[in-house]
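Submission checklist for the structure archive. All mandatory fields must be present; incomplete records are returned to the submitter.

[x] Identifier: CD166 antigen homolog A-like
[x] Organism: Sinocyclocheilus anshuiensis
[x] Residue count: 551
[x] Sequence attached
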Amino acid sequence: STQTTFLRKNINYNALETVTSKYGDTIEIPCNNGRVVEAEVTFVKWKYDKDGNILVKHRDQNATVSNDVNYKNRVSIKDFSLVITQVAMADQRTFTCMVVVEEDILEYPVQLAIYKVPSQPQITNLTTVMAIGKPTTLGKCRSEGANPAANITWFKNKTPLVTDGAAIKITTNVDVDEETGLSTTTSTLEYTAVKGDIDAKFTCQVQHIKSANMDSSPLVFTVNYPTEKVNLQVVSQGPFKEGDNVTLKCTADGNPPPSSYNFYINGEEKTVDSSTYTLTNVTRENTGEYKCSLVDNEDIVASVPITVEYLDVVLSSTGKIVKKLGESLEMTVDVKASGTPQTSWKKGNAKLNSLPKFDKLTYSDSGVYECIVSMAGLKKTQTFELVVEGSPVIKNLIKERGEGMTKVLKCAAEGFPKPTVQWSVNGSNVESASEHGKVTYSLTIVPNGNLTVSCTVSNVLGSDSKSINVSALVEDVTMDKQDQKDEYSDQTILAVGIVVGLMLAVLAIGLAYWLYMKKFRQGSWKTGEKEDGSAEESKKLEENQSQKADM
């Protein structure tokens, strides 16, 4: 046979062409980037590494696949390109396309790169509690089935954590599956907590060149730390008055918080399995400073002041006070209070400007007095009733013209208890009106001649009496009114004139009366429907008039 010698070209393997395929996909590896002319080719051979024959295709013939177990059922050829199905990590190697053309042998090596996107990160907490200042392995983050291996970064509140050799320590391991050749990345976080890590969210993130970053679900840990201080507060709303209940609450800044506390009540230590303590029915003696502390460390303590407001009002006299007319009375009020009180006085419904003080009592001073003292939501009221008593005194006895021939006598008196009246003659329509020890009695009569009528007022303290002359003449009332007007004049000359006038009036009235009695029969009393005089008094009055007529 004739031996043919082929010349082989030198191939530069440092400039390998690279083809990338996703794990599990079908890949088509071109021969010389598809620039092979079929008419010039005697045959094409695909192989891997040095001696790993895959298949051979002669011109105008079907391809022949080798018995290589790695590719026997997974390879084919298409336009001199090698087609591999179900690409696995074992296919990540160099494939060579050997082309025989006339007297040359050409080789085109191609590097196949396989990639696989990692799985979602799986974060596992290795604890639920962190203690301040104590390194704690918090969690483990894992991502499987990647090529190349994935990277894992830890975050706290979206801020990346980096190993610092002190508070943060991150350990990362990459394991390759012997069967699939895929990588699993595992990262463990060891962390030393601080107080600011309360409610902090820890996550891990997987990064890969062929996928977007993937974040895990967050982990939140309970942060335990010792109590550094306690706080005592008054839960109940003040201000507090005697009889109220006051609740205290002690809180600590540690976690977990203490289940019991010491409360110091009036200097006495009380340990309670609660954070609250209630003072019931407080009094002014409960005013003071209250404390609470930890049971196992009494040096960690807090305090709060409590003031129980109180108001005491004492009058020098209360109830009913009976005094004599003209006497003096001075009231005093003693106020004891936890603050500055406001004091006001009232007599009935009228406000007073100051504390009642009486140098000389009058009947108008009688009444009910009220002392109102208020402060900080408290209000106290004290009262006394002042009664001014005095022997009755007739202040005025006058006569007025009534209807027809009637005369109305009015006897005005002062005194308390209310005086009673007694007239010396028959009368009717006895009326009275009383106010502040003053009382006016009225008597209506029909005189038939000159009369002298007496008004006597009395009570348990004494009596007083005055008389007035009454005639049957109408002018008698007019003159009497003029007499009363002049009686209160301060001018001496006018007073003398009144006296002279009165004397003349008396003479005229006497003469008229004598003439009247001579001409007419003796008259009789004429009373109204409410006559208060007795029949006996009327008879005596008629006898007197008869005797005067005979004279």
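[x] Structure attached
Curator remark: Residues 1-10, 478-496, 520-551 have pLDDT under 50 and may be disordered. DSSP finds three helices and 45 strands in the chain.
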